[in-house]
C-alpha cells in the first residue's frame, strides 16, 4: 500500500517527519482526513489536534494552531505557526 | 626612571586584562555561532514549505492579490534595516547601514519617499545621532531573534503595505540585512520583499511542475493567509542569518583585538625591560662616578 510522506514543521523548527498511513487534521472548514492517493489540496489549518498514523508505531498526536497544509502526490506538508507534540 | 617602569607595568597589566575580556567574548561568540546557524537551519523547512505553497498558489491562479500587484508609480518605500544591538563586532553594523544608505539614496533618486524601519540599537543610534526620522524601531535580542518578534515586524510592515498610498501606506518594502556566506564572509544584501516577485523557481526546478491544488477555502483566502506568513518567514530567516553574521563578525573582531593586545603586551614588555636596564646602568655609572670622586679627593 502506498504511504504518505509526512512533514510537520513549525515556524522555527521541524516537528515530525516520516512515513504514515493516514493524517487527520482540522481545517478552517472542518476536519479533513488524508489517505494515500489524495488529490492535491492546499488548505488553512484551524487550531486543533493533528493525528498522524505512522506506518510503524503508535499514532502521533500534535496540537497545532494556525498555518496551512498541503497535500501533493502523497507528500503531506503541515506548516503550523505553532506545533506541539503530545507526549502522552 | 622608576616612574617610567611603573607606567609600562600599568600598561601591561591593563592590556592583559583587556585581552582576557576579548578572549572570553571571542569564545562566547564562537560557541553561539553554531547555535545560531542550527536555528537558521531549523527554520528553513518552514520557509521552504511556505515558499513552495505560495508559488504554487500564485503560479496557477491569475489572482490580483494586493501583495503581488505592483503599484504603477511607487512613491513610498519602507526599508527595514537589520543591525545589531551591541557593538564590538567590527564593521558589522556599519556595513549594513552603509548598504542601507546606498539603497535609500538610489530610491530617493527614483523619486520615492523612504520610511525607515530599524532593528537593533546600532541602527537607532545611527539615526538618532543624525536626527533623522524613522517609523519604528525594534531592539533587544538581535543575537538570538525570536519568532514572535519576526511576526510582529512582519505584521507591522504588511499592514503598512496594505494601507492606501494616500493614507501613508507604502508601495514597496525592502529588507537590508547581512547574509551569512561563511564563517569568514558575511555580505550585506538588499532584498525586495513586497510586492512579491515570483522568481524563486530554482527551488522548484528539481520538483515536478507544481500540481493543481484544490483550495480550501477559496484560493484568495488561502493567499490572504499565506502571504503575511511568507513575509514573516522571510523576515525571520533574515533575522537568523543576521544574528549568525553578527556573531561571526564579533568573533573575528575579538580575535584580532586579542591579537593586537598580544602585540602591545610584547611591545610594552620590551620597553619596560629597556627602562629597567637603563636605570641599572645609570645607577652603576653614578656609583662608579661617586667612588672615583671620593678616591680622587
Automatic annotation (TrEMBL), chain A:
<dbReference type="GO" id="GO:0045259">
    <property type="term" value="C:proton-transporting ATP synthase complex"/>
</dbReference>
<dbReference type="GO" id="GO:0005886">
    <property type="term" value="C:plasma membrane"/>
</dbReference>
<comment type="subunit">
    <text>F-type ATPases have 2 components, CF(1) - the catalytic core - and CF(0) - the membrane proton channel. CF(1) has five subunits: alpha(3), beta(3), gamma(1), delta(1), epsilon(1). CF(0) has three main subunits: a, b and c.</text>
</comment>
<keyword id="KW-0406">Ion transport</keyword>
<keyword id="KW-0813">Transport</keyword>
<feature type="domain" description="ATP synthase F1 complex delta/epsilon subunit N-terminal">
    <location>
        <begin position="4"/>
        <end position="83"/>
    </location>
</feature>
<dbReference type="InterPro" id="IPR001469">
    <property type="entry name" value="ATP_synth_F1_dsu/esu"/>
</dbReference>
<dbReference type="InterPro" id="IPR036771">
    <property type="entry name" value="ATPsynth_dsu/esu_N"/>
</dbReference>
<comment type="similarity">
    <text>Belongs to the ATPase epsilon chain family.</text>
</comment>
<dbReference type="Pfam" id="PF02823">
    <property type="entry name" value="ATP-synt_DE_N"/>
</dbReference>
<protein>
    <submittedName>
        <fullName>F-type H+-transporting ATPase subunit epsilon</fullName>
    </submittedName>
</protein>
<dbReference type="InterPro" id="IPR020546">
    <property type="entry name" value="ATP_synth_F1_dsu/esu_N"/>
</dbReference>
<keyword id="KW-0139">CF(1)</keyword>
<keyword id="KW-0472">Membrane</keyword>
<dbReference type="GO" id="GO:0046933">
    <property type="term" value="F:proton-transporting ATP synthase activity, rotational mechanism"/>
</dbReference>
<keyword id="KW-0066">ATP synthesis</keyword>
UniProtKB/TrEMBL annotation, chain B:
<dbReference type="GO" id="GO:0005886">
    <property type="term" value="C:plasma membrane"/>
</dbReference>
<keyword id="KW-0406">Ion transport</keyword>
<dbReference type="Pfam" id="PF00231">
    <property type="entry name" value="ATP-synt"/>
</dbReference>
<keyword id="KW-0813">Transport</keyword>
<keyword id="KW-1003">Cell membrane</keyword>
<comment type="function">
    <text>Produces ATP from ADP in the presence of a proton gradient across the membrane. The gamma chain is believed to be important in regulating ATPase activity and the flow of protons through the CF(0) complex.</text>
</comment>
<keyword id="KW-0375">Hydrogen ion transport</keyword>
<feature type="coiled-coil region">
    <location>
        <begin position="254"/>
        <end position="281"/>
    </location>
</feature>
<dbReference type="InterPro" id="IPR035968">
    <property type="entry name" value="ATP_synth_F1_ATPase_gsu"/>
</dbReference>
<protein>
    <recommendedName>
        <fullName>ATP synthase gamma chain</fullName>
    </recommendedName>
</protein>
<comment type="subunit">
    <text>F-type ATPases have 2 components, CF(1) - the catalytic core - and CF(0) - the membrane proton channel. CF(1) has five subunits: alpha(3), beta(3), gamma(1), delta(1), epsilon(1). CF(0) has three main subunits: a, b and c.</text>
</comment>
<dbReference type="GO" id="GO:0046933">
    <property type="term" value="F:proton-transporting ATP synthase activity, rotational mechanism"/>
</dbReference>
<keyword id="KW-0472">Membrane</keyword>
<comment type="similarity">
    <text>Belongs to the ATPase gamma chain family.</text>
</comment>
<dbReference type="GO" id="GO:0045259">
    <property type="term" value="C:proton-transporting ATP synthase complex"/>
</dbReference>
<dbReference type="GO" id="GO:0042777">
    <property type="term" value="P:proton motive force-driven plasma membrane ATP synthesis"/>
</dbReference>
<dbReference type="InterPro" id="IPR023632">
    <property type="entry name" value="ATP_synth_F1_gsu_CS"/>
</dbReference>
<keyword id="KW-0175">Coiled coil</keyword>
<keyword id="KW-0139">CF(1)</keyword>
<dbReference type="GO" id="GO:0005524">
    <property type="term" value="F:ATP binding"/>
</dbReference>
<keyword id="KW-0066">ATP synthesis</keyword>
<dbReference type="InterPro" id="IPR000131">
    <property type="entry name" value="ATP_synth_F1_gsu"/>
</dbReference>
Amino acid at each position: 500500500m502506498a504511504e504518505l510522506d509526512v512533514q510537520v514543521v513549525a515556524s522555527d523548527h521541524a516537528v515530525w517527519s516520516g512515513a504514515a498511513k493516514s493524517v487527520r487534521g482540522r481545517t478552517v472548514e472542518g476536519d479533513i482526513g488524508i489517505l494515500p492517493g489524495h488529490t492535491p489540496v492546499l488548505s488553512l489549518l484551524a487550531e486543533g489536534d493533528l493525528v498522524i498514523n505512522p506506518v510503524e508505531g503508535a499514532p502521533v498526536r500534535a496540537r497545532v494552531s494556525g498555518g496551512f497544509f498541503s497535500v501533493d502526490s502523497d507528500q503531506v506538508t503541515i506548516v503550523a505557526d505553532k506545533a506541539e507534540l503530545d507526549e502522552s | 626612571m622608576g616612574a617610567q617602569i611603573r607606567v609600562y607595568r600599568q600598561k601591561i597589566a591593563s592590556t592583559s586584562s583587556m585581552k582576557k575580556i576579548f578572549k572570553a567574548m571571542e569564545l562566547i561568540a564562537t560557541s553561539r555561532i553554531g547555535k545560531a546557524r542550527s536555528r537558521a537551519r531549523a527554520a528553513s523547512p518552514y520557509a521552504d514549505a511556505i515558499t513552495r505553497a505560495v508559488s504554487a498558489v500564485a503560479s496557477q491562479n491569475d489572482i490580483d492579490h494586493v501583495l503581488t500587484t505592483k503599484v504603477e508609480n511607487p512613491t513610498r518605500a519602507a526599508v527595514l534595516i537589520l543591525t545589531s544591538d551591541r557593538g564590538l563586532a567590527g564593521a558589522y553594523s556599519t556595513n549594513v547601514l552603509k548598504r542601507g544608505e546606498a539603497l535609500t539614496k538610489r530610491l530617493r533618486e527614483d523619486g520615492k519617499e523612504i520610511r525607515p524601519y530599524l532593528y537593533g540599537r546600532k541602527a537607532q543610534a545611527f539615526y538618532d545621532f543624525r536626527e533623522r526620522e524613522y517609523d519604528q524601531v525594534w531592539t533587544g535580542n538581535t543575537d538570538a531573534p525570536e519568532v514572535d518578534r519576526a511576526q510582529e515586524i512582519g505584521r507591522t510592515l504588511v499592514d503598512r503595505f496594505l494601507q492606501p498610498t494616500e493614507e501613508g501606506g507604502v508601495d514597496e518594502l525592502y529588507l537590508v540585512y547581512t547574509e551569512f556566506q561563511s564563517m569568514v564572509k558575511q555580505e550585506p544584501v538588499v532584498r525586495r520583499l513586497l510586492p512579491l516577485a515570483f522568481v524563486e523557481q530554482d527551488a522548484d526546478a528539481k520538483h515536478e511542475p507544481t500540481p493543481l491544488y484544490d483550495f480550501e477555502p477559496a484560493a484568495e483566502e488561502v493567499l490572504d493567509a499565506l502571504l503575511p506568513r511568507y513575509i514573516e518567514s522571510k523576515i525571520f530567516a533574515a533575522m537568523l542569518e543576521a544574528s549568525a553574521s553578527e556573531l561571526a563578525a564579533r568573533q573575528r573582531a575579538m580575535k584580532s583585538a586579542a591579537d593586537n593586545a598580544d602585540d602591545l603586551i610584547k611591545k610594552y614588555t620590551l620597553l619596560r625591560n629597556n627602562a629597567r636596564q637603563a636605570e641599572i646602568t645609570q645607577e652603576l655609572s653614578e656609583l662608579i662616578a661617586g667612588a672615583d670622586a671620593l678616591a680622587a679627593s
